[in-house]
Amino acid sequence: MIAAAVAIAAVALDAVLGEPRRAHPLVAFGRWAGWIERHLHAGCRLRGLLAWSLAVLPWVGVAWALDAFARQLPTWLSAAYAALVLYAAIGLRSLGDHARPVADALDAGDLDAARAAVGRIVSRDTGALSSGQLAAAATESVLENGCDAVFGALFWFLLLGVPGVVLYRLANTLDAMWGYRTPRFARFGWAAARIDDALNLLPARLTAATYALCGHTASAWHCWRRQAGAWDSPNAGPVMAAGAGALRTCLGGPAPYHGRWKARPPLGEGQPPDAIAVRRALVLVRNGVVVWLAVASVATFALEAWRHA
């Protein structure tokens, strides 16, 4: 039951403490990755792969060594170490901390405050967005980051322990830094984007299935099947299409990036998004986490019973 207990403890720590306010490990990693990028950047995929390897693999090695050492300690100490690492890797409470102000501002009719709050969680231009577009942006962010910052981290921890979750979270962070189709990163960031795609292949589809299970199931499956393939990301497509269907709301569509409107396919079906949709997306993710922790607990209990049978 150790893995499930550690996951529950990490989620509880996140609920109580939220993201570390000072010295967050991912902030330090971002500085390290930025230094490597400045010294190795070139319009070359091989240089990008080398930079990714230098940024990520040493820390995965450190995590593996520390994990191996922790396993020699009393069980409670080893579990505490693993829980702290997983706590640093997940961001369930952070989703609410960032998305709830958007919903509150929309309820108050304060579009300027809503635009400022949305600007802190998405990369699109927010200055000309309507209330519905602001709600859509926040809802999309919750659904997509539910995979990246919550379910993906839980998946790789339950599968490979501390080294697995460290590898996943650092790779995901590098994708957020380098995985853009811009002149600077189109080739250099190719490895970061493709590795993140590979690591999210299973978590994204499990996240989409979780959204379908915890929301309007028939609508979620329909939207996943019909809409996900049109999205430009192979993993965000299933997650956001299933999530939009589960919420019975309409997401996607054109959005402004860097001064230009980017054509995006529609996602979901039902009502236009509003403040309620943002809050329902948060509830959907939280309910999904409860399901994952329950399944993990039952699975590990069954495995232990089988081993001792």
Automatic annotation (TrEMBL):
Functional pathway: Cofactor biosynthesis; adenosylcobalamin biosynthesis
A Pfam cross-reference name: CobD_Cbib
Chief localisation class: membrane
Superkingdom of the source species: Bacteria
Record field: transmembrane: 49-66, 149-171, 289-306
Subcellular location: Cell membrane
Keywords: Cell membrane, Cobalamin biosynthesis, Membrane, Transmembrane, Transmembrane helix
Membrane topology annotation: Multi-pass membrane protein
Its job: Converts cobyric acid to cobinamide by the addition of aminopropanol on the F carboxylic group.
Family stated for the protein in its record: Belongs to the CobD/CbiB family.
Protein name according to UniProt: Cobalamin biosynthesis protein CobD
Organism: Marilutibacter chinensis
The encoding gene: cbiB
